[in-house]
Amino acid sequence: MAAPGVQYSDVVASWGEPEAFAAQPPDPVYCLYGDLELGFTTKGRLWHLQIEPGGSVVSLPSAPGQYVREPVPDIPQLLAELTADGFRTTRHTPFDPEDDPWHRVDRSGVLFRRDAPDGPTRIHSTAKDICDADHKDLPRWD
Question: 125 and 68 share a domain?
Answer without folding.
Answer: yes
